[in-house]
Design brief:
By secondary structure, the protein is mostly helical. The protein contains eleven helices and three strands, in the order βααβαααβαααααα. The termini are far apart.
Length: 333
């Protein structure tokens, strides 16, 4: 028992079996992190600078960009340094802190996706009541509620995981301290922890995913009933991009946390987790905003994007908020 309670560090062994690819992984992670920070920071700046983008939709997108920078910063820089320098040791407290903030931002992003889906549902399916429904107070409440839900989940997950005993083997078969892999490294019986993870994470994933898909279901029904073929095509194109990001996020997260025996396949989690820790935060600015006409107009207005008339006529896709009604604008958001 004395040895079980004095573990002070862990060894991250994810991708260690491929020594020739360490430098490549470091460059890859560093490059994607730079794109993540630059892309999301650009969107925050553009939304703040252009008063035309002071709407509920872009308020959520701005907060999503802030969240993605924090989400990626918890994992990616440390992983890039690990691959380049070969320093795979992480302290006990550092591992707990990394798990806490990763769970916080990851859970909050799931709630953000649900909130944004509901916002689009209200804008397209209830345009006459949209200004009343999505007022500024409710939007701020939704953002704060998402962070509060993430804080509750990460406290539960981190507390239960680090209440386990760690003895002898201190290796974590991952490139960061994730809940399933840290549990797998424990010498305690993890049945209760797996049940808690399945119950809490499973309910969060199923609940938020249900809101997303039900909202988009009603959106699609509304779009089908639109009289204009051009409007239907543009709306479907936008929804398909959003649904791709949603499906990618919830699919990978469910594989990791929402099924029984999640700790039994740590090797698979190394590759799968790259998607939702590194790739998705990098792609979100492109998926959610850079295909939007208003955002592209703002980028050209402030000199951040050169004008390409041919590409603009072929690829500009308007937001569903622009179809059939005016979106209420906020001042000072």
């Amino acid at each position: 028992m004395e040895n079980q309670t004095k573990v002070t560090e862990f060894i991250l062994i994810g991708f260690r079996s491929h020594p020739g690819s360490q430098l490549l992984l470091s460059v890859l992670f560093s490059t994607m992190y730079i794109f993540t920070v630059a892309g999301n920071a650009c969107m925050i700046l553009i939304i703040r600078m252009d008063s035309k983008l002071h709407t509920p939709m872009y308020f959520f997108l701005e907060n999503l960009s802030i969240l993605d920078i924090c989400y990626s910063s918890v994992i990616t820089p440390e992983a890039a340094l690990t691959f380049s320098l070969g320093r795979r040791i992480i302290s006990y407290n550092g591992c707990a802190s990394q798990m806490f903030f990763f769970s916080l931002f990851g859970t909050t992003e799931a709630f953000f996706l649900a909130v944004m889906a509901y916002d689009r549902f209200a804008a397209i399916c209830n345009p006459l009541l949209y200004q009343i429904i999505m007022n500024k107070r409710l939007c701020v409440f939704m953002v704060m509620g998402s962070y509060l839900s993430g804080c509750i989940n990460c406290t539960i997950q981190t507390g239960f995981t680090f209440s386990l005993s760690f003895c002898g083997r201190k290796e974590i078969n991952h490139f960061f301290c994730d809940v399933p892999t840290v549990m797998h490294a424990s010498c305690s019986d993890t049945l209760v922890n797996e049940i808690v993870m399945l119950a809490v994470c499973g309910s969060i994933i199923v609940g938020t995913a249900a809101v997303v898909f039900i909202s988009y279901g009603y959106i699609i029904i509304t779009i089908v009933q639109m009289p204009s073929a051009a409007s239907r095509h543009k709306a479907f194109s936008t929804c398909s991009s959003h649904m791709l990001a949603v499906s990618l996020f919830f699919g990978t997260v469910f594989f990791m946390y929402g099924q029984p025996g999640a700790t039994s396949s740590p090797d698979k989690s190394n590759i799968i987790s790259i998607l939702y820790t590194v790739v998705i935060p990098m792609l979100n600015p492109f998926i959610y905003t850079l295909r939007n006409k208003e955002v592209k107009g703002s980028l050209k207005k402030y000199g951040a994007m050169p004008s390409h008339p041919l590409q603009a006529t072929r690829y500009l896709v308007r937001s569903p908020f622009q179809l059939g009604h005016r979106t209420p604008r906020w001042s000072g958001v």
